[in-house]
Amino acid sequence: MLRPVSLFVGLRYTRAKRRNHFISFIALASMIGIALGVTVLITVLSVMNGFERELQDRILGMAPHVIITGEGGRLEKWQQVKTEAEAVSGVEAATPYIATQGMLRGHGVNQYAMIQGIVPDSHQNVSIIDEHMVVGDLLDLKAGEFGIVLGSGIARRLGMFPGDKITVVVVEGTTATPVNISPRMKRFTVTGIFEVRAEVDSNLAVIHIEDAAKLLRFGKKVSGIRLKSEQVLQSASLAYKVSQQLSVPHYTSDWSHTHGSLFKAIKMEKTMMFILLTFIIAVAAFNIVSTLVMVVTDKQADIAILRTIGASPATIMNVFMIQGSLNGFMGALFGLIGGVSLSLTLPDIVTWAEKNFGISLLPGDVYFVSFLPTQLQMSDVINVTVSAFLMSLLATIYPAWRAARVKPAEALRYE
After folding, report:
1. Do 45 and 123 have their domain in common?
2. Of 264, 246, 247, nearest to 255 (Cα)?
3. Which residues, 6+ apart, have CB-to-CB distance to 147 below 8 Å?
4. Domain ends where: 196, 231, 254?
C-alpha cells in the first residue's frame, strides 16, 4: 500500500518546474504519445466494429440463421415442423422455402443463380430483402402469376427491368425420356429488383413458393424451414435446441457453417489490429522510462536527503512510480476523451469533408457501404485505456527501482 508521503512527494515532483527543460519536454511527449495512441486505437476499433456490424446486418440479414431440412432435400409435414420450431424459446420467426440452382436467360445472356421459392408475407419476418427493394415490392409475387425478383447484379448483367420476360431453366424435377433428360424451363415476369450490396445481389432470384413447387414438382413438400434467431450470434445453440424439440426426422444447420469463416477472419483481423496499434502506446510508454531515469539522476540529492530522514527504499520507489504513472494516467485519460469524441463524430466529419472538398472516401460502386460506419463499444474503450495505463505503470518499475538503490553517502559526496 502506498504511504501518504510517497503520494505527496510524487505529486509535488510532477508539478514542480524542473531546471532541465528537456526532461519536461520528454515527459510531455510521452503523455501526448500515449494520448494519440489511445485515440487512434479506439477510433480504429470503432470503425472496424462499424464495418463488422454492417456486414453482419447485410449478410446475416439475408442468410438463414437456422434451417431445418429433410432427407433428400425435401421436408414433409413441414407445417408440423414449423409449429414445433416456433414454440422453441429464442425463435423469432419461421417460414418455409424451396431452394434450387438454375440458369436465368434473358436478352441472349445466361446467368447462374440460386433460386428460392418463398412465402412473401412471412419471408419479410426472416429476411431484410424487402427493406432493400430498389424497384417493385416483395408482395408483388403472387401464386400462379410466375413473377420473379432479381438481385441487382443479375438484373444488370441480363439487362432486365420490371415487366421483362426471363426464362428460368432448372435441372431438378427434369423430365427423363428414352433419348435424354430434358431440363424444365419456364418463362417468368420480372416484378422487382433488390440491392443489398452483398454477394446475393449477383446470385439470388426469388419466386413464389407455389410457383417453385410447380416448377420443381415438389407437390406439398418444401426444401425446409428457415428460422430467424432472436440472438443471431447464438444461432448454433438455438439449432441444437430446435433439433431436440422436433418430432419428425430432420437435419438442422446454422449460418456458422456457411459464413462462420468470414466473421472469424474479421475477428482475427480486429485482434491483430489491436496488437499492432498497441505498440504505438508501448513506444510512448517507453519514453516514461527515459523521463524517469533522467529525473532520478537529477533528484539524487533529494533522494539521499529523504533516505537520511528515514524514508525506506520502498517509499522512494513509490514516489517515482506515482510520478511516472500519473503521466500515463493523464495520457490515457486524454486519449479516452479524444477517442470517444472522434469515434462518435467521425461519420459527420467524413460527410463534411466529402461535401466541401468534392471527394468520395467510400465510393458506393466499390464498397458495400457509401458511408463510414462506426460503433463504439465500451469493452474496447476499457481494454485500450486500461492497457495503456498498465504499460505506463510497468514502465516506471525499473527507474523507480534504480532510485531506491541510490546510496545517500555517495549522492551527497559532492553536494
Report:
1. no
2. 264
3. 140, 141, 188, 189, 190, 191, 192, 207, 208, 211
4. 254
Half-sphere exposure of 281 (CA within 13 A, CB side): 32
Other C-beta atoms lying within 10 Å of the C-beta of residue 6: 22
Q: Which residue has the higher pLDDT, 346 or 309?
A: 346
Q: Do 236 and 279 fall into the same domain?
A: no
User: So what's the pLDDT on residue 2?
Assistant: 44
Number of domains in the chain: 2
- Among 209, 232, 254, which residue terminates a domain? 254
**Host domain of residue 229:** 64-254
Averaged pLDDT for residues 208-225: 91
Which DSSP symbol is given to 143?
A: T
**pTM of this prediction exceeds 0.85:** no
In the chain, the amino acid numbered 98 is I
Quick: pLDDT tens for 172-181. 755 555 555 6
Contact 280, 42 (CB under 8 A): no
CA-CA distance, 88 to 238, in Å (whole number)?
9
Question: 131-140, 193-202, 318-327, 351-360 — which one is most confidently predicted on average?
Answer: 131-140
Residue 403's pLDDT band (cuts 50, 70, 90): confident
Residue 133 has pLDDT above 70, yes or no: yes
SS3 178: coil
Q: From CA 146, how far away is CA 399, in angstroms rounded?
A: 79
Amino acid (one-letter) located at 96: P
* Ramachandran bin of 64, using left for φ above 0, alpha for ψ from -120 to 50, beta for the remaining angles: beta
Both 138 and 278 in one domain: the answer is no
